[in-house]
Amino acid sequence: MCGIFGYIGKKNNAPEIVIDGLKRLEYRGYDSWGIATTSEEKGTEQLYVYKKVGKISEMRDTSAFPKSTLAIGHSRWATHGGVTDANAHPHWNSKKTLALVHNGILENYAEVKAELMKKGVKFITETDTEVAVHLISHYLESGLDLRKAVLKASARFDGRFAFVLFSIHSNSIIAVRRGAPLIVGVGKNETFIASDIPAFLPYTDKVNYLDDHEMVELLPEGPKFYSLKTGKSIEKRLITIEWQIEDAEKGDFEHYMLKEIFEQKETILRAINQDPEEIMELAKLIKNARGAFFTGCGTAGKVAQIGVYAFASIAKRHINFTPSSEFTLFHHFLKPETLILAISQSGETADVIEAMEVGKKSGSTLASLVNVKGSTIDRMCDYTLLIKAGPEKAVASTKAATSQISLLLLLAYASAGELDSGRKLLVETASKINDLLNPRYLKHISKIAQKFKKSRDIFIIGRGANFPIALEAAIKIQEVSYIHAEGFAGGELKHGPIAMIQKGTPCIVLVGDDETRPEIISNALELKARGAEIIGIGPVREAVFDHWMYVPASGIASPIVNLIPIQLFAYCLACARGLDPDMPRNLAKSVTVK
Ligand code: M6R
User: Fold this and answer.
1) Which of 204, 407, 458, 510 is the most exposed place for a label (fewest CB within 10 A)?
2) Which candidate in 2, 381, 507, 572 is catalytic?
3) pLDDT band at 591, cuts 50/70/90?
4) Are 489 and 460 in contact (CB under 8 A)?
5) Distance 590 CA to ligand 1 centre (A)
6) E strand or H helix at 218, and its extent?
7) 3-state SS class at 346
8) Exactly one of 259, 399, 476, 589 is catalytic; which is it?
C-alpha cells in the first residue's frame, strides 16, 4: 500500500520526474499524494512541500515546482488519520529541514508521540508518520548524524514499514526497509528509490532489492547500503530486470483492467511454458510433503482453493487451504516436513508474508507462485515459480489469477506423473480463449452488463473447482462495480442463501464442463423457480439460462475459461456505472499492511 518514489541525480527537474513516476505507482494508493524537494531562496536551501487530496493522475502542470536535483514523493492509502491535505505525505520536522514519506504502520507510534510531546514537539497531523520525522529530528539535535539518527529512530518502532527521507543540509536521500518493499534503481548519474519497479522503468532496468533491516543512502553517483542493525556498510548485487516499459503502460486500452484481461491470450502460455524440470521439482515437493498448505489472500486465496480441487481430482492429493490472514492460528500443525505454497501476484501482501514467517519458524519448506521477481515472498521462499504475467497494475487481479490457476493445474498433472497431458490441455485452453478476448464478445458482455448495471445484488453459484470461481466472481464484481455480490457452492443455496432470491434477482451460474454439470443445472432451476434471472456461463446454451455467456468446452480447465466472462462482466458493470475500474474506492493494489 502507498507508493513511494525518490530521485537524486544530475537532472534539475526532480519534482517532475517524481510526479511522473508516482503516476505509474498510483495503483498502490490514490486518496492523496505529495512531493518534497529543495528550493533555493536568498542563497540558502529551503524545504518545498506540495501535497493534496485526490488523484495524482489529475496533476498536469508541473511548471510551478522549483528546479531541483532531488525529490521524494508519495501516493497515499490512508491508515492513520483521515484523507486530508495535512495527513498526506511528505511530513516534516518543526524546523522544516527534514521531509519524510512512509509506507506501513508504526504500531507503537502513540507511545513515542507522547514522549515527544512531553519534550515540547507540536504535531500538526493525525498520522503515525509525523512521529517518525520528529523522532529523527530529535536524534539529529542530540548530535547524531543523519544516518545514525535514522538507524536509532527505526529501532524505536514496532511494525512493518519503509521510510524515505532527506535533509536540506545533505545532498542525499536515505531510505530504510523493515517489512515494506523498496527497490533502488541505478541509472547513469542518477539513483532512484521506489516501492515498485514501474516508477523508474523508463530510466533504468538495473536494480538493487533492499532487504528487510537494510538502509540505503542514495547519491547521484549511486547507492550505498548499510545494515539497519549494525550500521555497517554492506554489498548488494545489481540485477537487470526483464520488464519493458510498454508492459507497464495502458497502450491503446482505456483501462489497465481491460488491457490485462486481453493479455491473457499470451500470459497463460507464458505461465505454462516454463522449464519442465522446475515444474517437476515443485510438484515433487508438494507430492512428498507430509502436510501441504496452499495459502493466499483475496483473488490469490480463491486461486489457492482451486488448487485444492485440482490436486484432489488430478493428483488424488489432499491439500489444506487457509486464507493467509487466518494462517497463523494453525501454526501448531506446521512441521519441518510440511510444505506451504503461497500464491501472490505482488509477493508483498503482509498477511501472506506473516503466514510464511510462521512456516519458517516451524522449519517448514516454503514455496510460492509469484509474479514479481525479487519480491519479499519470492526471496523468503526456498522455492519460487514465477508466473510471468508481466506487470499487473489494475487493482482487480485478472491475468495473474489465470496464470496462477494454469500453473496449479500443471503442477497437479505433474504430481500425477502426467505433465505432458496437463501442458497439452492448457495449451489448447489458451488458444480457445481467443474466442472470448475480442471486441465482439466484449460487446455482448457489455450489453448484459447494461441490463444489470442498476442491480442491488448479484449472486453467483458454482460447483467443484467452479465454486472458488463463484467466490472470485463476487470479489471482481464488488471491487470494481460496488454492487453487492456473493458467491456460493451450488449445493449450499437451499441451506440459507436462497431466501434472498426474489423476482428478477440476477444469478450467475457457472457450469463446469465435468461431472458437476447436472447438479449445477438443478441448482439453477431451483433459483429460477423462485424468480431469479439466470445468467449462464458454460459451453452450451442451457434451457434454464435467460442470458448466456458462451465459453469453450475445456474440461478440467473450465475455471480458467469461466473466469474470463466474469472479469469482462465486472469491468463492463463498472464502466456502465460510470466508475473507474482501475482505481476502485478504498482499495490499493498491494496490501502491505495487516
Ligand atoms: O498481490 P497479491 O496476489 O498477494 O494480492 C492479494 C489480494 O490483495 C488481491 O488478490 C486482491 O484481492 C485483488 N484486488 C482482487 O482483485
Assistant:
1) 204
2) 2
3) confident
4) no
5) 7
6) strand 214-219
7) coil
8) 589
